[in-house]
């Protein structure tokens, strides 16, 4: 059976109105059914579904398709996954669509297929090694991640110093190992004598590994296999493949820093958690989390605070509701779970949750010491930082922030940037004008002067701070 034939069979067996009604509310209007489009912020019931033609279309954002396409876009999964779900809903015997596993591979190049197969084989090797390594088993037992359920779910294994030799013995070539990110340019294994975590993409396929040092002698606590044809670190949300349905059902996700934090949440009974693995959220990541409430719980060190602030800035330009969990223990989630227990971790997640906007505002207010020292320079830099972070945010967020500034600093602040749906784009080309080096210093001084004038003219109430001799400069 071909994919087109399977789609036809699904359309014969399923009613598109019934299928879509499982996800959103539809009401009959003439010969069609209408409802709020789930693919954009819709308030006008722009989505129209035609029962006879078995199609849907949003006359606002343009999204359109059939049963399989709706499931794919709504659940944010691959076309093949959506096809399998639709076939199951239609009570089509699994033997009729088992060919999809083969078709799934045909979406990739031959080199990509070889990498997937090699990484899957390597993952099995690492898991077998774990059972043989006393060092790995003792560490996992100490961190309470040694149960078969946890090891299986998070692909925990152990890389000894014989990975390259073992793979070559099993007929893999050096160039294949290099292409898969297993060995480096010098043909040495990248991960040696480390506990391994398999990294899977959103379809659940192994694309890379991360190795955790067990000796405390290495300068790098974690080492990752290198990027390859199937792995770009910036495109991966760790654990997303395990919990995408949970996130979809709860419309909420916790974002943490690393693997052990994800496992800690899982042990505490919280499954809808993903890790960013030290990278910034991309537009692709944010698209996966569209319409989902986001709770940030990153490390409480300086790097974690900077990462939290960057995420807030990134997410401010989107319509997600974002909160920050204030970590009062100066430990990561795994350490809190081990030292304080499950109840303390859950209590902190529930009781220490604050709006990301309030968190950013109060953190900046504290950083600039504005509780004690309201001098003009501090206020000016504080406002510049607020504008830099939230200048492209929706009007509702800007209005809230201007009210906070009025309350705390007693003047009416005006944002310089204006918000439009197309204001923010990661891929905008950046124009870099040529600058005459001789005039650079003059230009910079002029820019500073003009910037100060603009700030004062935009916010007349700040003039009082500017001419107040009692304030420090």
Automatic annotation (TrEMBL):
PROSITE patterns: TOPRIM. It comes from the Bacteria. SUPFAM superfamilies: DNA primase core, Zinc beta-ribbon. Its EC number is 2.7.7.-. It is an enzyme of class 2 (transferase). Residues 251-330 form the Toprim domain. Keywords: DNA replication, DNA-binding, DNA-directed RNA polymerase, Magnesium, Metal-binding, Nucleotidyltransferase, Primosome, Transcription, Transferase, Zinc, Zinc-finger. One of its GO terms (cellular component) is cytoplasm. SMART domains: TOPRIM, ZnF_CHCC. One of its GO terms (molecular function) is zinc ion binding. InterPro entries: DNA_primase_core_N_sf (IPR037068), DNA_primase_DnaG (IPR006295), DNA_primase_Znf_CHC2 (IPR036977), DNAG_N (IPR013264), DnaG_primase (IPR050219), TOPRIM_DnaG_bac (IPR034151), TOPRIM_dom (IPR006171), Znf_CHC2 (IPR002694). Coiled coil: none annotated. GO terms for biological process: DNA replication, synthesis of primer. This is DNA primase. It comes from Mycoplasmopsis synoviae (Mycoplasma synoviae). The lineage of its organism: Bacteria, Bacillati, Mycoplasmatota, Mycoplasmoidales, Metamycoplasmataceae.
């Amino acid at each position: 059976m071909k994919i087109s034939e399977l789609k036809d069979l699904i359309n014969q067996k399923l009613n598109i109105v019934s299928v879509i009604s499982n996800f959103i509310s539809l009401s009959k209007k003439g010969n069609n059914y209408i409802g709020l489009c789930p693919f954009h912020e819709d308030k006008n019931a722009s989505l129209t579904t035609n029962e006879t033609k078995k199609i849907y279309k949003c006359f606002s954002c343009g999204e359109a398709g059939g049963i399989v396409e709706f499931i794919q876009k709504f659940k944010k999964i691959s076309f093949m996954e959506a096809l399998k779900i639709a076939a199951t809903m239609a009570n089509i015997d699994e033997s009729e669509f088992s060919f999809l596993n083969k078709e799934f591979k045909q979406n990739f190049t031959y080199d990509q297929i070889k990498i997937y197969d090699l990484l899957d084989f390597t993952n099995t090797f690492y898991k077998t090694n774990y059972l043989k390594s006393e060092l790995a088993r003792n560490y996992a037992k100490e961190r309470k991640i040694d149960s078969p359920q946890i090891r299986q779910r998070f692909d925990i294994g152990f890389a000894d110093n014989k990975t390259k030799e073992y793979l070559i013995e099993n007929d893999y070539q050096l160039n294949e190992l290099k292409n898969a990110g297993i060995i480096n340019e010098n043909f040495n294994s990248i991960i040696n004598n480390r506990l391994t975590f398999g990294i899977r993409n959103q379809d659940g396929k192994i694309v890379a590994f991360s190795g955790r040092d067990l000796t405390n002698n290495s300068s790098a606590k974690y080492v990752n296999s290198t990027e390859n044809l199937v792995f770009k670190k910036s495109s991966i949300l760790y654990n997303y493949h395990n919990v995408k349905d949970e996130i979809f059902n709860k419309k909420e996700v916790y974002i943490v820093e690393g693997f052990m934090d994800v496992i800690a949440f899982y042990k505490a009974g919280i499954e809808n958690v993903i890790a960013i693995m030290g990278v910034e959220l991309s537009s692709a990541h944010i698209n996966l989390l569209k319409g989902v409430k986001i709770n940030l719980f990153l490390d409480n060190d300086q790097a974690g605070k900077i990462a939290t602030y960057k995420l807030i800035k990134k997410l401010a330009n989107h319509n997600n509701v974002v909160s920050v969990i204030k970590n009062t223990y100066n430990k990561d989630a795994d350490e809190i779970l081990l030292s304080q227990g499950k109840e303390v971790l859950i209590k902190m997640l529930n009781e220490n949750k604050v709006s990301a906007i309030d968190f950013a505002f109060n953190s900046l207010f504290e950083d600039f010491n504005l509780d004690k020292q309201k001098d003009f320079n501090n206020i000016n830099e504080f406002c510049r930082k607020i504008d830099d972070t939230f200048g492209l945010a929706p009007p509702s967020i800007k209005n809230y922030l201007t009210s906070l500034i009025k309350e705390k600093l007693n003047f009416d602040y005006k944002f310089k940037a204006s918000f439009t749906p197309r204001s923010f784009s990661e891929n905008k080309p950046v124009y870099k004008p040529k600058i005459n080096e001789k005039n650079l210093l003059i230009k910079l001084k002029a820019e500073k002067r003009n910037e100060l004038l603009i700030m004062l003219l935009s916010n007349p109430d700040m003039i009082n701070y500017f001419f107040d001799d009692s304030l420090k400069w």
